[in-house]
Amino acid sequence: MPMRLLLAEDDPKLLKSLEHIFTSEKYIVDAVSTGADALAYAETKEYDGLVLDIMMPGIDGVEVLKKLRKSGVSTPALFLTAKTEVYQRVEGLDAGADDYLSKPFYTSELLARVRAMLRRKDNYTPDLLQLGQLILNRSIFALVCNGQTQMLSGREFQIMEMLMQRPNFIVTADELISHIWGWDSDVDISVVWVHISNIRKKLAALRASATIRFIRNAGYLLEAGQ
Fold first, then answer.
1. Band (40; pLDDT cuts 50, 70, 90)
2. How much is the average pLDDT of 183-203?
3. Nearest to 180, CA basis, from 168, 169, 196, 167
4. pLDDT in tens, 49-70
5. CA–CA separation, 50 vs 40, rounded Å?
């Protein structure tokens, strides 16, 4: 059965060219030119993969993916980006993208990246960590509790994953920094505090009983609660 792709690109010539490339490879393609249309299509139809331009009028590609991940859509996504959009590529990966490809690109590389993305979908199984009623969905970088979902940034996800792998165990700030930012990082401890503060707000929004406690002169501890 042919794979179905959603293609979003605001350059009409490139959009037409990409649509031709994918249909020639026997993919079924829905091609749109705005972020709003990409969001509407992705929310109402089933796709095997998303190929999204970052810079689009109205809602950009990163915002489209953030909204989709927040609503629970886990379809793998590849971003097409300009070489100058470094911070947006990072933001896109943090939002849940599987890969990105800088323009201009070779057709062979684009198709190879898409095939790799679709292979990951074939092997997809939800990767979950659970503590009481709180679930960390590692496939979509999200916390789930009481029927609600809160998306996490890349750093928030890494911190929460580390804490949930060692519940009721003190994890030092130095351990968090060396594990997430690297042992030679000059990241200040206040950066860790900001990320944990954001996670606490998301736990509160979920009405989760789990809490992150700060133990003076020791570190952080994740408790399941009642």
1. very high
2. 87
3. 196
4. 999 998 888 899 989 998 888 8
5. 13
Q: Are 175 and 93 in contact (CB under 8 A)?
A: no
Do the beta carbons of residue 203 and residue 143 sit within 8 Å?
A: yes
How confident is the model at residue 190, as a pLDDT?
87
3-class DSSP state of 78: strand
Give yes or no for a cis peptide into 76 (omega within 30° of 0).
no
Question: Is residue 163 a contact partner of residue 220, using CB atoms and an 8 Å limit?
Answer: yes
**Range with the poorest average pLDDT among 5-14, 59-68, 70-79, 92-101:** 92-101
Determine the Cα–Cα distance for residues 45 and 41; give it in Å rounded to an integer.
Answer: 6
Asked if residue 221 lies in contact with residue 212, where contact means CB atoms within 8 angstroms, the answer is: yes
Q: Residue 212 and residue 222: Cα distance in Å, rounded? A: 5
Task: Tell me how far apart the alpha carbons of residues 50 and 202 are, in angstroms, rounded to a whole number.
Answer: 27
CA dist 29 and 23 (Å) reads 7
Number of separate helices (H) and strands (E) present in the chain: 8, 11
Q: Output the pTM of the full model.
A: 0.57
User: What CA–CA distance (Å, rounded) separates 123 from 97?
Assistant: 16
User: What tokens were used for 54?
Assistant: 């970052």
Rounded mean pLDDT, 14-30: 94
